[in-house]
């Protein structure tokens, strides 16, 4: 015999009252499902914003590298960056069309991010300057828009 509350209960009674009922388990599963259903859109939005940040950071670091290569007169050439949705090309030459394809450095960008604006940015040889300010726009899947701007001195603002 065992004392439960103020009553004595035998082993046969104790064995039938332990554990959870099927109804309790189904209720907990339903609550978890509802919580997950409401939280999923919030987490997918974070992923989309993360993709846009990754694309923006990759473009910014590639612009810095192109500017440094131009200042260093690497391969006796100007350097630039050509950006399109899903891919970035760091190239040597006065334009993307007339570049030395053997020196191309390709980088993947998240395909979920739409990229628009100035897609070809070229730094001058020796000084690493731009002829005019350039802006690249990044749009995530949830339509959040963010810009990256490069001024005529080559300073990247993001």
CATH topology of the domain at 53-157: minor pseudopilin epsh fold
Q: What is the number of E strands?
A: 10
Give the number of helices. Answer: 2
Shape: rod-shaped
**What is the topology, as strand order, of the major beta sheet?**
5-4-3-7
Uncertain residue segments = none
Please name the CATH architecture of the domain at 53-157: 3-Layer(bab) Sandwich
Helix content: 25-40%
Largest sheet: 4 strands, antiparallel
**What's the level 1 CATH class of the domain at 53-157?**
Alpha Beta
The chain-level structural class is: alpha+beta
Average pLDDT rating: 87
CATH superfamily of the domain at 53-157: minor pseudopilin epsh domain
Spell out the helices and strands N to C.
EEHHEEEEEEEE
Please specify the SSE layout and strand pairing:
Blueprint: E1 2-4, E2 7-9, H1 11-17, H2 22-71, E3 79-84, E4 87-92, E5 105-108, E6 114-117, E7 120-123, E8 134-139, E9 145-150, E10 156-157
Antiparallel strand pairs: 1-2, 3-4, 3-7, 4-5, 6-8, 8-9, 9-10
Describe, in plain words, how this protein is organized in 3D:
The chain has 158 residues and is α+β, with helices and mostly antiparallel strands. It has a domain at 53-157: minor pseudopilin epsh fold (3-Layer(bab) Sandwich), CATH 3.55.40.10. 36% of the residues lie in helices and 28% in strands. The chain has two helices and ten strands. The chain has helices at 11-17, 22-71, and strands at 2-4, 7-9, 79-84, 87-92, 105-108, 114-117, 120-123, 134-139, 145-150, 156-157. The strands form three sheets. The chain has a four-stranded antiparallel beta sheet, with helices on one face. A four-stranded antiparallel beta sheet has the order 6-8-9-10, with helices on one face. Strands 1-2 form a two-stranded antiparallel ribbon. The longest helix is centred in the first third of the chain and has 50 residues, at 22-71. It is rod-shaped. 23% of the residues are buried. The mean pLDDT is 87.
């Amino acid at each position: 015999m065992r004392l439960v509350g103020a009553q004595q209960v035998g082993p046969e009674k104790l064995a039938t009252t332990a554990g959870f009922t099927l109804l309790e388990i189904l209720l907990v599963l339903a609550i978890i499902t509802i919580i997950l259903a409401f939280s999923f859109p919030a987490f997918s939005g974070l992923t989309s914003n993360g993709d846009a940040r990754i694309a923006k950071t990759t473009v910014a670091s590639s612009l810095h590298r192109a500017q440094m290569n131009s200042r260093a007169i690497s391969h006796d050439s100007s350097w630039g960056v050509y950006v399109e949705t899903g891919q970035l090309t760091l190239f040597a030459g006065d334009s993307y069309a007339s570049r030395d394809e053997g020196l191309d450095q390709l980088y993947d960008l998240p395909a979920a991010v739409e990229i628009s604006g100035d897609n070809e940015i070229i730094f001058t040889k020796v000084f690493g300057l731009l002829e005019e300010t350039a802006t690249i726009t990044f749009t995530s899947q949830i339509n959040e828009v963010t810009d990256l701007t490069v001024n005529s001195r080559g300073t990247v603002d993001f």
